[in-house]
Amino acid sequence: MQSLFRVAFVLLSVASLSCLLAYIYLASKGGSLALYSTQSARLMSRQKKVFVSLAFVGLLVCLFAGAHALLFWLPADWGGIDESGEFTSLREYLSVLVALFGGLGLGQFIDKSVHRSFYLSEAYAQIEALRLIVEASTSEASLKGVIARFEHERAQLLKRLDDLPKSHECDQPLLWPDGQMSLVYGSMIALAHEQLARLQPLSEARPKT
After folding, report:
1. Strand ranges for 87-142 from DSSP E
2. For residue 137, with 0-12 CB atoms within 10 Å meaning exposed, 13-18 middle and 19 or more buried, which class applies?
3. 140-162 and 90-135 helices, crossing angle to 10°
4. For the whole model, what pTM was predicted?
5. 150: part of which helix (H) or strand (E)?
6. Nearest partner of 59 among 25, 17, 92, judged by Cα
7. Is 79 helix (H, G, I), strand (E, B) or coil?
8. Is the distance from CB of 145 to CB of 136 less than 8 angstroms?
9. Mean pLDDT over all residues of the chain?
10. Tell me, what's the pLDDT at 171?
């Protein structure tokens, strides 16, 4: 029985460390939909929940072990008796605090950084779309060309959303980055049509030569 528990703990240790390394790699690489999905439970499949949980366990263990090693200078007899009547050293108590608060803070920082990167991509795309509309606002033909370009981009995004596997994690397609970008292009198309509607009466009022 002990050997089975040992094997189980070894597998859990390897899985946690592997998930933690994968999490760090995805966070450093950027653009990870797996990490983006943590913003909503509706976007997370069971596999992603297990992956994030194991990565977080690995982070807590690493922080605890690191803090415990750095606090080597604390005397081993400093501590107190816990509720179960066992002695808990100050070194272990402080290491637990570092792991909990450090792990939660670092996890939230990475999570916010991932979501911010997607938000900035949407913002830059919206700024570029507004620039194209402004530059094309002197010509009906240019505005129609911009509208056609936006409609093509939006159609491509919607097609990618339709191609997603029909699973629980995809039941809210507009919550994904492509879905958010399709909404951005939809609003830009509406804005371009408004600008075109303002421009057409002016062109009709011009004297024909």
Report:
1. 87-89
2. middle
3. 140
4. 0.70
5. helix 140-162
6. 17
7. strand
8. yes
9. 84
10. 56
CA 18 to chain centre: 20
pLDDT per residue over 36-70, tens digit each?
A: 887 766 677 788 889 989 999 999 999 999 999 99
In angstroms, rounded to a whole number, what is the distance separating the alpha carbons of residues 40 and 59? 22
**Residue 88, SS3?**
strand
Say how far apart CA 94 and CA 63 lie, in whole Å: 11
Residue reference for tokens 């530059």: 135
- Over 70: is that where the pLDDT of 74 sits? yes
Q: Give strand ranges (E) for the chain.
A: 79-81, 87-89
Please name the amino acid found at residue 9: F
Q: What angle do CA 127, 28, 44 make, to 5 degrees?
A: 80
Question: Measured between alpha carbons, how far is residue 24 from residues 18, 34, 59, 114, 155 in Å?
Answer: 10, 12, 10, 12, 33
